[in-house]
Design brief:
Blueprint lengths: L1 H19 L11 H4 L6 E4 L2 E3 L8 E3 L5 E4 L7 H10 L7 E5 L5 H4 L2 H8 L2 E5 H9 L21 E4 L4 E4 L2 E7 L8 E9 L2 E8 L21 H14 L4 E4 L7 H9 L12 H22 L1
Parallel strand pairs: 4-5, 5-6, 6-7, 11-12
Antiparallel strand pairs: 1-2, 2-3, 3-4, 8-9, 9-10, 10-11
The structure holds zinc ion.
Amino acid sequence: MKKLIVWLLPLLLATFVSIAVGQSAPPSCQQCAEWNQPQKPFRIFGNSYYVGPHGLSSVLITSDAGHILIDGALPESAPLIVDNIRALGFRIEDVKIILNSHVHSDHAGGIHGLQRLSGARVLASTWSAGVMKRGGVGRDDPQYGSITGIAPIKKVEDLHDGETFNIGATSITAHLTPGHTPGGTSWTWKSCEGNVCRDIVYADSLTPISTKGFHFTNSRTYPHALDDFEKSFKFLETTPCDILITVHPGVSNLWERVEARQRGTTPDPMVDPGACRELAGKARAQLRQRIEEELKQ
Ligand SMILES: [Zn+2]
């Protein structure tokens, strides 16, 4: 009997967790099922780990004083993130802070469930925190009206551009990188292995995507969109950047880099100090093209 309970308990717990964090909810967009494909978690560098599904990044930064989790992917990704954290030998209950890149369902949707399981503090830019507390999609979001919103997150604290906070020996800094949304945030920190320390950049989306009819060049709801993008490009062009992780891992060729690393390629293919500048260049070109299209209309 005791043996049976030992076997059944984790199963029952897993089922409860799945229901609690919304695994049974239907996928929230067309590409979501594809993005939510399981991914074996792995060490990025030092105390930084990839714990997201295959198509949406989620990063765990660990310390003896508790962990930081950046992004929760989709609502239906939460159980997968919990499993990945556990597979690495850590506990969701030890996640003390949850951060976010931007408040769209594919990066912030899972935070609701992950906060409930961990009891972690959720910290976000003032604009993002406002949307998180209300739920849904921000009215001045370029994609307002065409995307699924998020479930309201109960307690969210505001943070400011350049704010740094510490957990254990890790110091993590918020950089407001708006444009894709008015509250977009990227994150930087250092992770070390022995004497080798790397500057890690978790870069938010910088794509000018919108609902039909929205113009980045002339928007009443988001009049400073172009200035915001410029600020964000400048950040990427100047920030120390050894290892770049983008919120959609494919954007920075993460899986090619992981494969090359598994083949034993040296130097470490995960490290590319030019990656952030290259991403800024691509994002600038995308915005330029979008502006040209808008001006033709
Ligand atoms: Zn988005």
